[in-house]
Design the sequence.
């Protein structure tokens, strides 16, 4: 019973030595270990093909690891437990069109609830409540064709929240949206996290990582680095070796430091500026 | 003047026959050499509809257009004798998702498909495929691969090569860098810039990335609810008034420049449009 | 191209408040009844009743006529086919048909004239009938100028009545189905169908899965159509001219559409399956449902009437007195 008494109780997700290979394409992930604390916001950064989407699919049991273990809220992910674990972790995928199951917004939010065999009365209550949380209450009867990409993603979020999951993974959930849609979704992610939902965002857009607590950088299927957001955001070497970039104010800060140009308050100013992008 | 739109409007027919005005009285002229244009606007503002007019995939509901000397008007009767295919050869349009066009067994065959449709011989098409794949930054070994076993970025490059091999005067790309990681995006933008400078072609890019607009474009078009609301210099575009009116994102460079100017009273005037210029200026004013 | 049949039209009236199960079952019962009716009087009576029902249920006749329109060709074809080839019963009409240069030239002229002028009139059906009457006059009267061949046009009693019957039956069936589809949302229709098909469970057919498949198809048809259109535009940008080309080119053109369509659809269904599974969907598992059907008194009455109509048509069919 050590795990229940020790520090581990704070871990929502614990991943140990996770490995995965695709039959045709070879190794996608190898020896990945990290943990996600309850209520934390973790960003997983990685280049195209770094294995970040494979990782998200492993987390919700859509793929079976070749090696290693995934523990969610004290429960090891396996053939039997996968159904329990999916009640705890929800995932918003990249393409808004390919995850909208219902014929209307209402039907789509209901989909997960129907699967969990929630009684109808409770379902109706939750649909209203969570549609409201993502400001989609006025769209309940709308069909997906009448919605923008950002609105569809909000419906996806409501559908997952309504299932009362503890963790939501955003797997490049904003990459197919326009700037306006991207900003709204980020706003909701931030709000959810503040309300206590554990959040994992998977992205290669640096601007999406600034508000998170920690960042994990994946490169070619391996964990290159994991650390507090500030440390990683300033780590030019790590980011660039993984096809990523420094945010512009931080790039400036880095260059000035290298050239030994110092200026009072400029450093702190640039840091604050980078948080606002 | 290669493309000239005069009062072009376009209405999509919807189920209830009310229709939906995707283009609203657009007037624009685009040269067939030497332009580097970005086209911006929110989703649904009519950007894609506009470029689909430029290679005559769509024809206006109202108004007329002149594309490389061919006049296209709003009535089927007047367009009866128009040869649409030559227009599409000269104005190459790359769609957002390469999955829309890749279908052949090999990359080479897929790139050859366009030129062959326009009557180019087999051997010439082969030659062009090799050239095009190199222009987009992939080596010859890709030619024999299946287009379906490539990464997202590589597929994009192949789909662009497929249009380049048609040897169009004007190259139009619909959101070519969306979904790519920063390095992939920069590399592809560099490819477009090369096509523009070394082949002296007009390149038009639809994008949501204001950094691209500010850094690369010589000219920017802004669409809003079907209307073309701005056509001109990217530097002048990002004035306070326009940003507020059109709800524009501000390029990182401008944000940083403005912040430094107002908070530290550093002289950031003049044209600073990319990272290099900005860093150089900062070094000057700080040391 | 807009398909009018099968499209839900928002509205009110008692058809809208009926349970979809009622509407589906009543449709089946009334269809059987229609096939049992074998007298003109009854058939016209049935049509009259349907029209009255539609008026009471506030369904525009025009909507249903729009539903019939795409089937007009089929209706006319069966009508003409029956009239010309069913040679039973008394001869009602027999006319000599003259094939002459004049009659052929006039006929071609008339058809061409009709073809190019029909778009200017709002009464297309009426205009078509006039054209047919014109053809009749040309071949039997006007064209009798040094004919090089003659033939006979004969209409038999049985042919005419069969033609009329088949047409009326088709009209009734399409009208009834149109009432069902324009007053029932696709989702409700699907849900009703799922319930009506439930007895199939004894054959180990999972009706819930079928309903899920239909529901997802309904959801994705507009998306796929949109995508097909974009693929066409993308290939047209590479010089594919769908209007022209030799047979060999045609094959290539179709391949250039189908391959991307398949690949995108596979990717889409793969991603959709993942999204569904991640939201705890398991095929065949029990689910609660947001949409529930409620059986009202109206439904009992409607089913009662449909049964009555069916029984009546059976009695009238087999009774020796009528």
Sequence:
């Amino acid at each position: 019973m050590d795990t229940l008494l020790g520090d581990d109780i704070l871990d929502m997700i614990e991943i140990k030595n996770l490995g995965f290979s695709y039959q045709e394409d070879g190794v996608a992930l190898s020896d990945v270990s990290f943990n996600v604390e309850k209520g934390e916001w973790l960003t997983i950064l990685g280049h195209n093909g770094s294995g970040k989407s494979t990782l998200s699919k492993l987390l919700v049991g859509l793929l079976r690891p070749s090696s290693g273990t995934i523990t969610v809220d004290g429960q090891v992910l396996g053939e039997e437990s996968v159904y329990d674990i999916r009640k705890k972790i929800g995932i918003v995928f990249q393409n808004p069109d390919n995850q909208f199951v219902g014929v209307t917004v209402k039907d789509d939010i209901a989909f997960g609830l129907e699967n969990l065999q929630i009684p109808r009365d409770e379902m109706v209550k939750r649909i209203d409540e969570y549609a409201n949380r993502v400001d989609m209450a006025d769209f309940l009867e709308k069909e997906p064709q009448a919605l923008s990409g950002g609105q569809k993603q909000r419906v996806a979020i409501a559908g997952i929240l309504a299932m009362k999951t503890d963790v939501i993974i955003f797997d490049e959930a904003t990459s197919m949206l326009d700037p306006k849609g991207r900003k709204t979704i980020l706003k909701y992610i931030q709000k959810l996290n503040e309300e206590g939902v554990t959040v994992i965002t998977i992205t290669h857009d640096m601007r999406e990582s600034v508000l998170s607590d920690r960042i994990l950088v994946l490169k070619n299927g391996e964990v290159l680095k994991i650390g507090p957001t500030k440390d990683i955001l300033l780590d030019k070497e790590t980011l660039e070796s993984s096809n990523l970039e420094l945010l512009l104010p931080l790039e400036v800060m880095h260059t000035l430091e290298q050239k030994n140009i110092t200026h009072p308050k400029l450093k702190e100013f640039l840091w604050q500026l980078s948080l606002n992008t | 003047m290669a493309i000239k739109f005069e009062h072009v409007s376009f209405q999509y027919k919807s189920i209830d026959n009310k229709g939906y005005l995707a283009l609203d009285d657009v007037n624009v002229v685009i040269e067939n050499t030497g332009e580097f244009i970005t086209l911006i606007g929110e989703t649904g503002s009519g950007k894609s509809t506009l470029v689909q007019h430029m290679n005559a995939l769509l024809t206006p509901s109202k108004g007329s257009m002149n594309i490389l000397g061919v006049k296209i008007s709003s009535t089927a009767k007047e367009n009866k004798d128009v040869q649409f295919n030559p227009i599409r050869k000269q104005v190459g349009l790359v769609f957002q998702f390469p999955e829309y066009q890749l279908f052949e067994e090999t990359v080479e065959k897929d790139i050859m498909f366009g030129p062959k449709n326009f009557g180019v011989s087999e051997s010439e098409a082969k030659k062009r495929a090799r050239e095009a794949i190199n222009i987009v930054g992939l080596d010859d070994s890709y030619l024999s691969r299946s287009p379906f076993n490539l990464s997202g970025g590589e597929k994009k490059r192949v789909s662009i090569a497929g249009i380049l091999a048609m040897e169009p005067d004007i190259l139009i790309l619909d959101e070519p860098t969306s979904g790519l990681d920063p390095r992939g995006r920069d590399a592809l933008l560099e490819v477009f810039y090369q096509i523009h400078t070394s082949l002296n072609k007009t390149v038009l890019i639809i994008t949501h990335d204001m950094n691209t607009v500010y850094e690369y474009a010589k000219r920017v078009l802004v669409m809003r609810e079907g209307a073309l609301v701005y056509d001109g210099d990217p530097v002048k575009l990002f004035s306070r008034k326009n940003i507020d009116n059109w709800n524009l994102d501000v390029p990182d460079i401008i944000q940083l420049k403005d912040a430094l100017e107002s908070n530290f009273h550093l002289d950031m005037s003049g044209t600073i449009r990319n990272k290099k210029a900005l860093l150089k200026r900062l070094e000057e004013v700080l040391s | 191209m807009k398909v009018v049949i099968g499209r839900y039209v928002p509205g009110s009236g008692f058809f809208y408040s009926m349970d979809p199960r009622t509407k589906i079952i009543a449709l089946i019962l009334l269809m059987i009844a229609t096939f049992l009716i074998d007298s003109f009087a009854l058939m016209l009576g049935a049509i009259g009743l349907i029209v009255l029902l539609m008026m009471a249920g506030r369904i525009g006749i025009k909507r249903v006529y729009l539903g019939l329109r795409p089937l007009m060709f089929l209706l006319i074809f069966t009508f003409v086919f029956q009239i010309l080839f069913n040679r039973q019963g008394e001869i009602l009409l027999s006319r000599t048909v003259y094939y002459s240069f004049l009659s052929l030239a006039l006929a071609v002229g008339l058809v061409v004239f009709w073809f190019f002028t029909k778009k200017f009139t709002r009464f297309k059906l009426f205009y078509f009938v006039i054209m047919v009457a014109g053809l009749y006059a040309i071949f039997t009267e006007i064209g009798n100028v040094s004919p090089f061949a003659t033939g006979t046009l004969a209409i038999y009693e049985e042919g005419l009545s069969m033609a009329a019957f088949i047409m009326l039956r088709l009209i009734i069936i399409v009208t009834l189905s149109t009432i069902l589809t324009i007053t029932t949302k696709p989702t409700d229709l699907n849900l009703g169908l799922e319930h009506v098909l439930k007895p199939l469970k004894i054959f180990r057919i999972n009706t819930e899965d079928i309903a899920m498949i239909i529901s997802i198809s309904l959801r994705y048809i507009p998306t796929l159509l949109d995508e097909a259109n974009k693929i066409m535009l993308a290939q047209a940008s590479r010089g594919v001219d769908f209007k022209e080309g030799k047979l060999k080119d045609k094959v290539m053109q179709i391949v250039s559409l189908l391959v991307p369509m398949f690949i995108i659809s596979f990717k889409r269904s793969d991603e959709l399956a993942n999204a569904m599974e991640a939201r705890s969907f398991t095929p065949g598992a029990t689910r609660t449902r947001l949409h529930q059907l409620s059986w009202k008194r109206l439904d009992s009455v409607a089913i009662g009437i449909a049964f009555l109509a069916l029984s009546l048509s059976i009695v009238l069919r087999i009774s020796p007195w009528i």
About this structure: Confidence is low (pLDDT under 50) at residues 1-6 of chain A. Chain A touches chain B through 34 residues (CB under 8 Å). Residues 179-194 of chain A form the longest helix (16 residues). Chain A has eleven helices and ten strands.
